Amino acid sequence: MKRDSVSVGIIGFGTVGTGTARILLENGALIRERCGFSVALKRIADLDITRDRGIRVPDGVLTADARALLNDPDIDIIVELMGGIHPAKEFLLEAVRQGKHVVTANKALLATEGAGIFAEAERAGVEIGFEASVAGGIPIIKVLREGLVANTIVAVYGIINGTSNYILTRMTEEKVEFSAALGEAQRLGYAEADPTFDIEGIDTAHKLTLIASLAYGIPLSFDEVYKEGITKITAQDIGFAAELGYKVKLLAITKASDGGVEMRVHPTMVPNEYLISKVDGVFNAVYVEGDAVGPTLYYGRGAGDMPTGSAVVADIVDIGKSIVHGAARRAPGISPAAASRNGIRKMEDIESMYYFRFSAMDEPGVLSRISGILGACNISIASVIQKGRRIGGSVPLVVLTHRARERDVLNALREIDALSVVADKTLFIRVEGNEE
C-alpha cells in the first residue's frame, strides 16, 4: 500500500531546530498539498526541554534522550541540528546504520568527517540531505546537484559567511576599523563571543569543501583549502580599493584551471560593477558559471532560524518523495569514492591580479626600486596610488598589478620587504575581475 506520510525526529532544538519545527508544524498543510504526503514531526531531542522557544509543540514530542529517536522504528528521517563534531557524528552514523535517512546542517562535520559518513550511507542505502549546510536558505546544493547537472562547472564564487560580510560592509560604509565592526557584530548577535571560525575563513572553508566536491567530483578536501581571514584588512585598504573601483569581500573560490581545481578562501577585491560586490550585510550570494548556462547568481539569507529551517525542510521533503514513491538516489551527490581526474592546485600555482600596499619611505627612487623587483619577478603594474608627503617617514604606496602567479608574488614581496626603504611588511589582497 502506498504511504501517505513520513515521520521525522529532530536532534537539537536550538535556533535552526526551532525554525525547522515551526515550519513543519505551521506549514504542514501546505507541504501535504504540494507534495501529496504528510511530514509528521514525531520527536524532538535536546538536553534542555524546558526553555521556551516561542512555539508550542504537541505533548510527548520533547525528550532529553536522543537515542529514543534513533531506536524508534517509526521514524524515517533523523534531522541532526545540534552542531559540532561529537556526539553529532556518532548519532548520525547510528541513524544511518539503523536504516534511517539523515538531514543535517552540520557543514563542519561533513567537511572534516564526511568521507566516512557518506560511505556508511551508501552501504546502508540511505540518503543524506545537507542543503542547509551551505548558505542557509539559498538552495545552492540543489542547484549544483540538479539544476546544473548538465553543465561543466567553470567557476564558483561565494560570499557564504554573513558575519565576515557584515563586518566588511560596516568597515566600507562607516569607515571604521576591523575591531570596531567586529564589536558591533557581536553586540547585534551576528558574531559569536569567539568569532574565530567566521573571521579566519574556517566556516567559509567548510562550506567551500562541500561546494567543490559537488562541482568537480573531487573527494572532500577541507585540509587542502587555502584559508585566509579578514583580520588584517584595514579601513585604509578598503578606502584605496574604493578609489580603484573595487569592494573587499571574503570570497570562497573554486574553479577548474590547468587540469586542477582551485579551492581558496581569502579577502578579495571585486569590481564595483559585479553584482556580487553589491551583496552587503549578513546576506550571502553564490555565483556559479556553467559551460552551458553561463553565469548565474543566487542570493539570500545565509543563516537564521527560518531561512536555514526552510532548507532543512526542503531536504526532508525530497527524501520523503523517495520514501513515498520508492525512488532511489534522486540526483548526483558527494561520492565517498570520488575519482576525479582533477587534482587540487597548490596556492602558489594560482594566478590572480593583486593589490599591494607598501609602507615606503618618502624618498626619490623608491617606486623605481620596487617596480624593478616586480618586473624581475614577472609582475607588471596596472596602476599606482601614492598619498601625501612625509619627509623622512613612510607613506602608503598602492600598486594594482596585472595577472601574476602567486609564487612570483611571494618571491617579489620577500625581496621588497627586505629593502631599507620599506618600513613594514607589505599587505596584499588578491583581485578578481577582467583585466582592462
What is the overall pLDDT average? 94
Number of helices: 14
Number of domains: 3
Assign a percent range to the helix content.
25-40%
Protein model, in words:
With about 425 residues, this protein is an alpha/beta fold. The chain folds into three domains: about 150 residues, Rossmann fold, CATH 3.40.50.720; about 160 residues, Dihydrodipicolinate Reductase, domain 2 (2-Layer Sandwich), CATH 3.30.360.10; about 80 residues, Alpha-Beta Plaits, CATH 3.30.70. About 35% of the residues lie in helices and about 25% in strands. Strands 7, 8, 9, 10, 11, 12, 13, 14, 15, 16, 17 and 18 form a twelve-stranded mixed sheet that branches. Strands 3-2-1-4-5-6 form a six-stranded parallel sheet, sandwiched between helices.
Task: Spell out the blueprint of helices and strands.
Elements: E1 5-11, H1 15-26, H2 28-35, E2 38-45, E3 62-63, H3 66-70, E4 77-80, H4 88-97, E5 101-104, H5 107-124, E6 128-129, H6 140-147, E7 153-159, H7 162-174, H8 178-187, H9 196-199, H10 202-216, E8 226-227, H11 235-243, E9 246-257, E10 260-271, E11 283-290, E12 294-301, H12 305-325, E13 343-344, E14 351-361, H13 366-376, E15 381-386, E16 394-401, E17 404-405, H14 406-417, E18 427-431
Helix pairs in contact: 1-12, 4-5, 5-10, 7-8, 13-14
